[in-house]
Amino acid sequence: MSYRVELEEGVWLAPWDGDPGRTVVKENAVLFRTRLAAVRAAYRIKRRFDHLTRIQIKEATDEP
């Protein structure tokens, strides 16, 4: 199973530069192989960008 980091509702962590890199296209989001890796990424983002208050870890599924 893999995981994505949702920064805000409908906005996902993306693999490109930004503050942090983000995308609204779920399929373009970074996929983490473990929940722990996703949690660590979310923690690093939250420490640096405290205005992002709704960060969530979601299982990557094919569902909309």
Account of the protein in words:
By secondary structure, the chain is of the alpha+beta class. The protein has one domain (3-59). 22% of the residues lie in helices and 23% in strands. The mean pLDDT is 90. The protein has one helix spanning 35-48, and strands at residues 3-8, 11-13, 22-23, 56-59. A 4-stranded antiparallel beta sheet has the order 3-2-1-4, covered by helices on one side. The chain is globular, with a radius of gyration of 11 Å.
Distance between the termini: 17 Å
Overall domain count? 1
**Uncertain residue segments:** none
Radius of gyration: 11 Å
What structural class do the secondary elements suggest? alpha+beta
Number of strands: 4
* Mean pLDDT over the residues: 90
Task: List its salient traits.
alpha+beta; single chain; 4 strands; 64 residues; globular; 4-stranded antiparallel sheet
Task: Outline the fold blueprint.
Elements: E1 3-8, E2 11-13, E3 22-23, H1 35-48, E4 56-59
Antiparallel strand pairs: 1-2, 1-4, 2-3
Short overview:
The model has no long low-confidence stretch (mean pLDDT 90).
